[in-house]
Every structure is written in structure tokens, then in C-alpha cells.
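thought: fold this chain, then report.
action: predict
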Amino acid sequence: MIAKDKDSGARLGCIATPHGKIATPAFMPVGTQATVKAMTREELREVKSQIILANTYHLYIRPGHELIGRMGGLHGFMGWDGPILTDSGGFQVFSLGDLCRIREEGVTFQSHLDGSRHFISPEVSIAIQEALGSDIMMCFDECPPSTADYGYVKKSMEMTTRWAARCMKARRRDDQALFGIVQGGRFDELRKESARQLRDLGFDGYALGGLSVGEEKAVMFGVMETCAPVLPEDRPRYVMGIGTPEDLIEAVYRGFDMFDCVMPTRNARNGMLFTSGGTLNIKNARYAEDRSPLDPECDCYVCRNYSRAYLRHLYRAGEILASRFNTYHNLHYYLSLMEQAREAIAEGRFSSFRRDFFERRS
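observation:
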């Protein structure tokens, strides 16, 4: 941590990795299958992506971590020379529901592609991520449903801690950071205990898992407020899988540093765009003859060069360029928002920045 806002939990930090430094707070574009959909690596640099996220489960299934390892790891395979974070594959495996079986040893599951059977344990997850060569690896954890009862969540959280210890023991490389994942559902007592247990194991960073999975916003923010005081001040704090620009600003306010979500890229492909004044649905007929830029306050390539009318036409015509332009803009918006947040923290005005941000959306 470099600096902290005097009126909130917002923190300014810097994470050093073998492939570069990451200024935090930071948003990580999601590159599930070793690509951020619709974006080239040059465009990712143009929108100032510091780090991208890749998915362990999907890359294990196709094309396989051994192949990627032979190609020089993810950096060599996809031609990206910046930092990469890989998730553990846990969330994707458990989302398969009836197709997976959870045991203390690990998880047996069927591929969503061809139904073939596979087994991932904490040790296997680390081996896959080491072959992928990411800068930051995540521990293998169980992500219980948001509706799970206290008894199930407690057993799941305790197993996640045991799996985290196994992940740490399984590490063979010293050039990759490893983050533990706090679980415990909506139960404050379990979240605190999970955070304490992982803190005592001594990870390079800590994440909150099992959020943005259907719980109320108050519950999500409550979990952040419960866990932040327990986690070490000098280690990165990552909230996995959130979300809206509003979610990011509220998480920064509560002392968290790293975020990822498919929302800016997925929404872009569905015509939902983020602007300084809120969301805009480019499909609406009202934009058919609108000559103005998508966001008059945005300086991205798309807003400098194309009108709302043209972007609407591209979307309605089913042109590939619609996904490319919309994704470019949405990622630029998210990454610029984090840059503005960092500037506000550095200047000691994050609370007023947060207030102005929400007033413009009211």
C-alpha cells in the first residue's frame, strides 16, 4: 500500500510482478480462453489494461495446459507481455452442478464440451497454473451457492482452508504469486474465520470469493466490511467477479484493490454501453439519427470518431465491428474509472469523487 484516503478505506497501491507493475485500484479485463473477446493485445494496451485474467478450467479443457506450457506459457502463447492472473478453475467446476462430485481429495467433473471425465485437486490446479505461467495464481476453493445453509457453508469454508494449505505446499515455482480466497457465504462469523485462517497461512494476496452470485448488494458490501479489517494491510485485496461501475467504486471505498468481471465485454456484445452519465442501450430507436458521440466526456477511439447513429446501425446490422467498438469503449470506460479513482485517492479526495460519481447517476 502506498497511500490511503483519509475519509474512507480507499487505498493506493502497487503490485510488482515479473511482467510489470500494477497500480491499484485496478480492473482486470477477463480473457477466459486466452483472449479478451473482440480485443487485440494492441487495443488492450491502448485502453490501458495493466493486467488480464485467464481461466484455468477453460484452458485446461482446451487447448490444454501442457500445450500452452510448451508454447512458452500464456505470455508466449497469446503474445501478451503484461501481467496475467489465472483463477483456480473452482468456480467454473462447481457451476457444473450435477456434472461434478466434491470430495476432500478434490473434484471429479465432466467437461462441458464433450462430457469427458476429469479430476482437479488443489495440487492439480496449482500444476495447471504453473504450466500456464501466470504472474498471480489463485488457490483452489469451493464456491457454495448463495442459498446454502450455515452448516454446509461452514464445512465448505473449512475445506477451502485445507485446500488453500495444500495449494501452498504444492507450489514449485517462486516467480508466481499465490492468493488465498476467503469464503463463508453471507455469514459474517464464517467470513471472519476464513479470513483469519488464510491470513495465518501467509499468502501473497487475498481474495473474496462467492460474491455477486445472487445475494443482495447490502450482503455483498457487508462481507467486504467484515473482511477488510481482518486482512493484512500490506497485501492486495481482490474481490472476484464484481461487477457494475457502482460496485467497483463501493469496493474501493471499503478498502479493496483488484476486480474482474465479464460485464463490460459481455454487455458490449449485447449493446449495453457504459458512459459517464450511466448505461446506454445502443439498440434504442432514439439513437437512429443521433450524431453525437457515445459519451461526450470520453476520449476513447470510438467516441472520438463515431456517432451513436453509426454504432446503432452496426449493432442492428449484426456487424462484427459492433462488438469490437462496443467492447473497446466499455473497457476504456472501466479502466479510466479506476485511473480516476487512483488519482482521487492520491489527491486525498476519493470521498468527494465517490459522491460526484453517484450524483451523476441519480
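thought: worth noting. The chain has a mean pLDDT of 96.
final: C-alpha cells above.
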